[in-house]
Structures are given as structure tokens and as C-alpha cells.
Amino acid sequence: MSFKVASEILKFYFKEKQHLKKSYSMRALARRLKISPSYLSEIFSGKKRPSPVLLRKIVSALDLDTHGKQLLERSFIEEIFPETSQSIARNTDKWILESLQSFVLLQRWYYVVILDLSTCDDFQSTAHWIAQATGLPQNEVNDAVAFLLRHGFLVQKSNRWVKSKKKIHFPTQQSLPLIRSFHSQMIHRALQELNTKPDTNSFQKRLISGMTISCNPERIPVAKEKLNKALREVADYLMEGPCTDLYQINLQFFSHRGNFAV
């Protein structure tokens, strides 16, 4: 039975570890796992399938996040039971890799900010300019730009960093820890804006509003579709013409009913 998709996931996280620590090598990882480098190489190439015990050790050593573990689990399920989702199974390799490449963008809130900042008309492809525009430390900007270039979110064109795709899709139909973390970071950013900028000028530049309503539960699915459509329409409207500023639009729509801590 093929181990190809799972091996690509493991190899992806291994390369991430290498980028974070240049001295990290396959030999060092094999030594930690107490296996030969050649055997580890065959696992990463999909030629060998590790035992469940060894696979758990590899997952732990590579620090797979929850999303990576879910993708790994999904690859095994579709490998064993392809008949349960044939249309998805035929595209598993592509889906897994695209999903990995997309979701890593959500690890830090400012990855998305820097990426979309590059589409502004006055954007300058220097870490110093980005740091001044965002208020981020320049060393974090350097790391973020290197990350975006490495994963192909930014590309170098004529001495300018350019966003490689106009829109990036995050394929998910369920609650994922990485996405929850990203939204939490952005909500925290909104709280910072609300609590640290009480001046009139800042107030006039933002809109933080909301309402509490009683509602018909049967209408919630359609309401969510309308809200998403409204967000896209507003975004399309704002992106027309010269763009020299960068805004965040957050939307929270949730029930007050049920047990929760106050």
C-alpha cells in the first residue's frame, strides 16, 4: 500500500525544521530516532512505511501541528478506504500539498498582513519600509518575508516582492486549531485598536460595531451566506482604484445560548 502522500507531509515538516535550524539534518534526525539515515530517506521518499511506533516518534520529532496530524490521518483513511470518497481520493496528493502550503500562512497574523501590503501602490520591497508601515520589529519582518518567499506566497520580480496569487483559498468545512488561532490573533488586534487608540482620528478611520438579536435558528445558514457575500462585496469595493492602506475586516456571529464562563 502506498505511503506517498504521508511521506510528502513528513518531508514538508522536515524541510520546515531545516529552514528554522540550518544544522538540522536527516542524519541528526535519524540518530534521534535510532534508525539509519538511508532508512529515513526511504520513508521520506515513500518507499518504506514505518511502523506505528516509529511513525509516532517521527511525528513528535518533526513537531507536526494539529493540522499536519489531521492531514496525515486523512491520507491514511483515504488510502485504506478510497471507495468512501473516490473523487477526493483521486486528488489526495494535490489537496494535501495545496492545503499544507496554504494553511502555513495562518501561523502568524502578520504573514497575511505583509503579503497583502505588497499589493499597495506605495509598497516598497524593503524590510525597513515594511517595519515602519506595520510597526513590526524589523527582524520579524525579515523572517516573515523569507517565509513568504520560501513558500511561494511572494515572488521576486524586477527587484520587487509581488504577491504570487491574487486570492488564497483555505479549504475547510470544519473547525481547525490553526484557523481558530489566526482568528483569535486578529480579534486581539481589534481589541488593541479599540483599547489603545481612543482619539477621534482613529475612531473616524475604523468601524467596530455589533448588535444582539433574537433569531430564528432555521434562518442561520442563509444568514451566514449573506454575511459572507457582504464581506466579499465590501472587499471588492475597497480594492478598486489606488490602494495605499491596509485594513482588516473581522466578523463574529455566534450564539449567546448555552453554558460558558463569564
In short:
The protein is 57% helix and 3% strand.
Class by alpha and beta content? mainly alpha
Q: How large, in whole angstroms, is the Cα Rg?
A: 22 Å
What is the tally of helical segments? 13
Measured by DSSP, the beta-strand proportion falls in: under 5%
Stretches where pLDDT falls below 50 for ≥5 residues? Answer: 84-92
- Biggest pleated-sheet summary: 2 strands, antiparallel
Strand order of the largest sheet: 1-2
If you average the pLDDT, what whole number results? 85
| Overall morphology | globular
Strand count = 2
Helix content: 55-70%
Q: What's the N-to-C terminus distance?
A: 51 Å
Order of helices and strands: HHHHHHHHHHEEHHH
Structural commentary:
- The structure is a single chain.
- The protein has 262 residues and is mainly alpha-helical.
- 57% of the residues lie in helices and 3% in strands.
- Helix 9 crosses helix 10.
- It is globular, with a radius of gyration of 22 Å.
- The protein starts with a helix and ends in a 24-residue tail after the last helix.
